[in-house]
Amino acid sequence: MSNPYTLVFGQPPLEIIERKAQADRIISEFCEARPSNYINLVTGIRGCGKTVFITQIANRLQKKKEWIVINLNPQRDLLTALAAKLNSDKNLNKLFIEAQINLQALGIGIEIKGAPPVTDIEEALTRMLRSLEKHNKRVLITIDEATNSKDIRIFTSSFQIFLREGLPVFLLMTGLFNHIDRLRNAEGMTFLERAPRTVLSPLNFNAIVDKYVKTLKLKQSDAIKLATATKGYSFAFQTIGYYAWEYPGKLDSALKDAKEYLFEFAYRKIWSEHSSTDRKVIRAIHLSKTGEISQIRKILGWSSNQFNPYRDRLIKSGIISVPQNGYVELALPWFGDYAVSIPESHD
How far apart are the first and last CA of the chain? Predict the structure, then answer.
């Protein structure tokens, strides 16, 4: 049997732990007879499982006969890509032909005799979605790793128009906190400020233990040791599981190699995305040992007013968590070790 864990970002692993409660809530909202929400923004740190999460939701909805799922590449012309993907489905294409929606002028499909060509992509999609509505269809659009790009802003503005028209279209979009925040605050994106946001929670500890016991044939105590090391971080769950599979009976070797892999292929990128002051705060949290905020501020020589904005941003970006009032801790395994391994002169 091949290794059931993966070291590749975004690749669906064989062994996964579902965030069922969070997924159920989104699916329930989207499936309501009169939905209160048509959009959900999924955020979290790199490697927390955003891609797997929306893939699971998409797969569950795709099994329902009334749902059509379209996955879009954020680096392309999203409106044209959406129309092309809808039209490429043979069953949907028949509906569009019956509705006399001539897309040839847009470079999509074949000419429909007697039907005037549609020359505006937004109008084309409005008519296509209206046709699907008549057949009791709903369309889920997923966009993974969205940024504040021109293509995303154009698409989001059109999506808002589709909603105003009452069309059965839903959007599930993932992105890093900073990217989603910039998009929400961009000009013309006001409606995104009111859009529900799902911040992915850590993986369930007991579920991790059970997976390691089952797949790695470990004793409960050994599985608990590995699960504790993950801190609920999805990529650490995969990485530690991967090396424990490769090194049966050698847990310390597996943890050592997993740590090195996380440093090189996850934390270096995460570290580069934070300011020198963010990094200073991260180091201080690690050096405080206890995570008591008063001690961290003492190390930094900061007042509460200086510290609080950085604490809030690092919480939202998934770097730190709040175990109890007056304390913070680094949310990623060994991230403090990584932080102090990088000389401050390199900031």
Answer: 44
Structural domain of 296:
275-346
The DSSP bridge partners found for residue 41 are 173, 197
Residue 279 sits in the same domain as residue 145: no
Residue 127, classed as helix, strand or coil, is: helix
Rounded CA separation 190/84 (Å): 28
| Entry pTM | 0.92
% residues pLDDT > 70 (the chain): 98
Does residue 209 belong to any structural domain of this protein?
yes
DSSP secondary structure code for residue 271 in this structure: H
Which two three-digit tokens encode residue 19? 């965030």
Q: Please, which contacts does 91-96 make with residues 24 or more away whose CB atoms are closer than 8 Å?
A: 92/68, 92/132, 95/131, 95/132, 95/135, 96/128, 96/131
- From 74, 50, 46, select the one nearest 197 (Cα to Cα): 50
Q: Is 284 helix (H, G, I), strand (E, B) or coil?
A: helix
Closest CA to 47 of 205, 228, 178, 239: 239
